[in-house]
What we know:
There is one protein chain. The protein is of the alpha/beta class. The protein has helices at residues 22-28, 66-78, 90-99, 166-170, 182-192, 196-201, 227-233; strands at residues 37-41, 47-50, 58-63, 82-87, 112-115, 131-136, 152-158, 174-177, 209-214, 217-222. The strands form two sheets. It has an eight-stranded mixed β-sheet with strand order 5-4-6-7-3-8-9-10, with helices on one face. The longest helix is centred in the N-terminal third of the chain and has 13 residues, at 66-78.
Amino acid sequence: MSSRVRDTTGQMGVAPEFTVDPSLLDAISPSGDRGGILLGSSSNGEPLTVSALRAEPTRIVLAGGLYLARQFALRAMAVGAWIVIATGREQAWHPIQRSAGMGPDGRPSPHVQIRRLSPVELPRASENAPLVVMHDGGPTPQDLFPPRAPWHTTVYLLPYLHPQASTVANAADLVLMQRLPAGQAELAGRIWNLPQQMTHQLTTLQDDQVIALGRNLWQPIRLVTTTKEQQILGPVRRGD
């Protein structure tokens, strides 16, 4: 039986099963378990998945680079989520949009939408079509797309930790952190009240390592990338 990251309800983080077009699955070749979003593997090589698509509004903070954010978007898309990317750097997200393929009208698939960093009407989230908003708005994001409904998850991409992001960080149901410089690790320790050993560990992570932080959760994860994801994203790396 696979190991799993716990979600913030205290239950094992197994997501329900969603449906997705087979051609999309073939395009990105996801490595997941049912409806769970696979993050990577444990030190023993066991797959670790997280229930990031839930029957309640969910906030995730991703303190790291574009590689991890784009891989998360691919994995969410692979289990049937609609993806809205709010960003000021649209070109950086075009590979994710292209990976979803084209619609019947010859335009990019509506399953992945790239929007500006301004309030817009979002697709309606539902159990059959969960919604993930990737908020790529810098280290001090405005809360433009807060999750308001079940099956709506907002992921805040923070390229680095900033004191002014502490409100967003503290409100997160799950935090995914890549390697941090010493000063940012100390800030993470203050934001989440981490013991010194954990704070130091954040400075020693390899490029392919992530810490999943949540309520009663501290889980080191090694990123695993499929061949087709490598073709879309390139090699595993800390930032862009």
